[in-house]
User: Fold these one by one.
Assistant:
Number 1:
Amino acid sequence: MKRITALVLLAMLTFVTPLYGAASAPKMLAFTNQSSQSFIPVGVLKGYDGIKVQYTSAQKKIDITKKDTKLSLYLGSKTAYVNGKKVAIKGAPFKEAGNTYVPLQFVSQYLSLKITWNKDTSSVVIIEGDIAASLPVLSGSSIAAANGKPIITARKSFKVGSRTFSAQTVTISLLHPNVELDVALAGNQVGKVEDLRSIAKRNNAVVAMNGTFFDAYTSGSYKAPYGYIVGKGKLLKDSPADKRTVFTFDSNNLTQLVPGLDFKDHFLQGKSTGAIQAGPRLIVNGKVSLDVKKEGFKDPKILTGGGARSALGITKDHKLILLTTGGATIPQLAEIMKQAGAYQAMNLDGGASSGLYYNGSYLTAPGRQISNAIIVKLNK
């Protein structure tokens, strides 16, 4: 298994900015157009040892060199050069959303890059030597069209069996250039509690939802959260023996649901900028999948008890669905998330903790202060 280090990823993001001069760092993503041609930001290649990239604006020329190989491409042109020899390429390089994109098949062939596709996370892994980068993949007519609006709120009804559930949803376009995902602690400390609205406002968040389970009923001032918590790349709460599902994301907002026992290695490899652990897992690759015993849940009523629920889902096209509803069992919640369009989904803390905040107001008001939250900011 190839190793991804935080240092390497940081280097890639750092080197991209001078090449393009973007006011705010765009997401590093792969793009597949309607002709099934895939492209990557040329700046990603600068993170690999021995690969150099130069852009000449007057000629709209991109030079990529690795040892004795030199590739020359031109914006908007399907003619490229390999060591001075003219070759035809299937997709022309283009600029969009602050990045310059080059055809993936062409550069991987001549730079000897290994490419693997991960359908579970809708991503591509680009490997050169011991260095690998995972990029979320967007598909469509353009990157802007695929991203759409950064945040959409809606109240929806879902029919599960003979019951109809009303749910509040917030859908976030994770790869939109202005969207920043993070995890926030109540009072900026492990063990504190705070109103969800207060956590959101203090962090200048547009969206906030309650996160992990925590010891809400202790009489002491320390309300211990349960499970892993990562914020801004720092491990805020360790939980090495916890089997429950972890929601994690990297600096490109590439999100993933990881089994608890696998998460520590995932974090140490530099793959997690933020994370919270809760569970149980609800949806795996578009299908309802519940295995509460495997995740370490011991309450016999975990699958039969109803109550207020919070859940998150990830779509194939990198949208994050935050959803709250009332009176649902865990199996009913799983079916709701499937109908909502989630390709992967998990349960969060519920009951009186269940809360969803948007743009200054509660869409779902929690019944108590909470320990931590998933937050979304919109940068300009």
Number 2:
Amino acid sequence: MNQKTAILIFANSAEKEVERKSFLSTDVISALNTQTLKTVEKSGITYFHISEKQQVGTSFGERFSNAIEGIFDKGFKNVITIGNDTPHLKAQHLVDTLHRLEKNDLVLGPSKDGGFYLMGIKKTHFNKETFIELPWQTNRLHKKIVNIATSKNLEIRFLELLNDIDSKEDIQFIIDSFKAIPLSILQLLQKLFFTIKIAFFQEEFSILNTSFFRNFNKGSPLIFA
């Protein structure tokens, strides 16, 4: 296997991640972490998992950039970065990126929220200061990276568009998708989605119920025939 390229799994533990994505459960995030590791191991590419325990920096941009730099400092010429929240990610996406980096400067797997679920980049095109200043965790990220790469005449290849899990709505989208995901994760997402729906309807009922009695108390007595 190509020893010039390494995968960076930039993903926090379930306990840490649920602080940011409170709509998820630790069970779901743990399952996603496990599935991500299985997918990476299946690709056969050398990988490093950088969780919150190894991350250095105050902002996301700093922590992510430092992690990428750390992989390059180990002697690798290319880095493929992924997270843990893309259930449809396959080993083939990683292998395809490995091969495409042989002829292209940058490989991006765009996500539906305007970011990316995968990025393959060469050391020669990695500028830490520029990376830190990118609009991380916004819907402008993908467009900004493409604009910068285009201005530098870099060759970009795109993978298929996938959905990562950044909101409650993403859960339903992934469940309804025709793309295959492991049954264990699908079942956990279905269970979580059902729980979210129940909580939503209970909240709506409570609001309507409270509103009814509030309005009733403000008006004349209700007379039952």
Number 3:
Amino acid sequence: MKNSILFVICLLTLASCNQEPDGFTIEGTLRGEVEEGTNVFLKKIGDNNQPVEVDTATIANGIFQFKGISATPELHYIFVDKAQGYTAVILENGTIEFSAQKDSLGFAEVKGTLQNDVFTDYLEKSRTLSQKARSIQEDLQRATKDGSPQASIVALRDEMQELQEEYKGFELDYIKNNPNALISALLLDRAVASRAINSEEIKTMYEALTPEIKNSKPGKRVLDGIESLKVSEEAEKNTSIGAKAPEFSGPNPEGETIALSDVMGKVTLVDFWAAWCRPCRAENPNVVAVYNKYHDKGLNVVGVSLDRTAEAWKKAIADDGLEWNHISNVAYFDDQIAKLYNVDAIPAAFLLDENGIIVAKNLRGPALEEKVAELLN
């Protein structure tokens, strides 16, 4: 009978040891001159891309604690009242050990769970490469200031370029070697935003991630970003020099629909701009001058506005004397024509020949007139 009871107890003990933790605990230790009762804040990035407070703890004898439940691993940040900097920590169920000097929160030691151990390893290796970059940058600044030979400056720039490629390779290898790590999804998310690699490469690495990481917030963003990146890559291909300009149409200030094909000239400038865009408004007098000089010879301009309101758009047309065809869906950067032409910053301009072939992009100042004169012979 006793043996049976012992056997049951052993089974229960083993079962409890194999269970996943039902929540997270951050055991925090803060060194330095820290007042009793100092607040420690646990925050995450909210929808407006600003830190949002999730929880607050107080320090007693240099120790604080956070507890909760994390459905999926998620990046959070620890701030200490009246202390500079912060510490990134990945919330996941389990015991997370945090240790830092009050004045060096950016170099805190965070360990105890898989995600934080991998994240700490990534940060340490990343800092090594960053230190190399800072050293090269300092040498480059010194060489430029001291008037060193041009060959030395070029060599330092080449060294920096090589280091940038090394850093890129390091991050891509880290993603491939750690498909179960949140940092891999975060790095992929950044690769989508910066277009560091193409959508097919990102998709391949994304598909290798574990289901848990795919289901995390950055994992979901990566999946959405892949589709957006594909669209962007296709638009970039379709609007490269030598490509046929994509056809589009939209409402003019009078509410009538006009199409690019209806207003083409021997040379056509498709000009993306907005009333709120200062560089656009600064360039408008030059476009007006070129248009007035060459319109009778075959130059047409189509202004595509990314304004938020029709009133601002129409007022800017009148104020700047833009006497050419205008189109606007009043949709800011959600404008479908802007997406069609892969425009994510303005001013942006595409110069077309009489066949609608893109022959130049983003010409400004004298360069615009020179190209228009060349095309009109």
Number 4:
Amino acid sequence: MSDAELLARRFEEHRAHLRAVGYRMLGSLGEAEDAVQETWLRLDRSDVSDVRNLGGWLTTVVGRVCLDMLRARATRREHPLEAPDGQVRLPDPVVSGPHGVDPEQEMLVADDVGIALMIVLDTLAPAERLAFVLHDLFAVPFEEIATVLGRTAASTRQLAGRARRRVEKAAPAPDTDPARRREVVDAFLTASRGGDFDALLAVLDPDVVARSDGGGLRPSLLRQGAADVASQAITFARFAQAGLPVLVNGSPGVVAVDAGRAVSVMAFTVRGGRITALDILTDPERLAGIDPGALHDGVPHDG
């Protein structure tokens, strides 16, 4: 085996990990793949003969690539959650069949990386996000992250701490019992289908937030409060009538199907036995890659 082939094989051993870093940094599966590819190109152009920990080296490189991509977004004045035109932008969901996550996707959704957490990560400044993601989620030492940011280790530690406090405040840990979470989701769907306002109030947290991302061609939705969200029961029921139970980032969710095509992905955050966040993706472009038939058979897919 040539040196080039050996290097390519070693890189492939780290691809899933690098993709997971990219997803947490960018919230986009496609951009995460782009970041991984750029990392490979930088590796191919570098002399790593003296690198003892290739995985660590690659992690910092993909982090630097993602940081540049985030800063480019900021330069274009793109806000990941809500664009200037009022459109809500949700992170890409990782959609799996109801019986479990495919091994190739396990790293993407490990450590309870749900949609709610991804949304909070999208609100962090690029440097904060890098410090938090690399240190708190991937255990990269502050000294190594500091070299990427051009800061001191102490300053980097402060960045991560500030980001951590924001994450813990905005996205506290959800309930951990999958069966209980599915019961709550099913109760919501039943109430939606029946137009039962009181039943919806019973399953929704008083401060529940509902967000819908329709892409460039469909309207967005951003509502807060149980009464306001419950008042949209008819809209939710339209999505729920042909709902297919799935996992969205490892948590119970629903894919709505019409004429054999996915028309929405609904992600639920359940805390204290109630739904605290409801995130709905209806963007046709990002739904095009979901095969409802494969999901029904239990084969996971990215959204």
